[in-house]
Amino acid sequence: MAILVIPARHGSKRLPGKPLLDDTGRPLILHVVERARSATRVSRVIVATDDPRIERAVVEGGGEAMLSRAEHDCGTSRVAEVAEAFPDEKLFVNLQGDEPEIDPDDIDRLVRELEESGAPMATA
Asked: For residue 82, what are the contacts with CB-CB under 8 A and spacing of at least 6?
């Protein structure tokens, strides 16, 4: 089993606020969380964000979020910060926050590969 972390920041240069876009009536980030939760080899899905608005949207939508430091220069370092909070866990998957159509089976295949290879983290 793995912890899946979705790094999400509000301050994107190309599209600020992208995780909270709600053209479907729900924020984009919640669609990603929902798909990730459908994976069977994931024990937790955590959105790592430096923005209280994203944290609030995730929690109000029934998800789990952790506030991370703002100075991260990439999503991978945000995932690493979350991993520090779980020193006994061995596997972490980094899922981009703009992947609302990811196939949960692909996540499960990735976790299986991680378990077999011994790598500590991967990006779906």
From this structure: 3, 5, 46, 48, 66, 68, 92
